[in-house]
Amino acid sequence: MVGGEDIVIVRPAPRDKFGDPTGAPNTESTSSGWLFAPGASSELHDGQNSVDTDAELYRLGAPGQESILPTDRIRVRGVTYEVVGEPAVWRLGTVVRLRKFAG
Fold first, then answer.
1. Residues forming beta bridges with residue 73, ordered by sequence position
2. DSSP letter at 46?
3. Which of 9, 52, 85, 93 could form a disulfide linkage to 60, CB 3.0–4.6 angstroms apart?
4. Which residue spans within the chain are E strands per DSSP?
């Protein structure tokens, strides 16, 4: 693999059985060797001037030690994205779909 960059996996604080925050902080971990592919943006005309931006992360080879969950957020190049669905792990690597919503 050529290069790759670091990402930060932001895992939300745990919640109790009623869905309320437990007061514990979010946890952050760094993962290396990812390829970032910015995607398309679309303006949503909902009276709020919002923008929806998609992106994807790729890593070739066997999955690393970290796990990425659908509830995580990923910070890459200083921008925080939400994970869309389950990361796809297959024989050649891992693909993670991301989305950022502003507005």
1. 10, 82
2. S
3. 93
4. 5-11, 27-44, 50-60, 73-76, 79-83, 88-90, 93-102
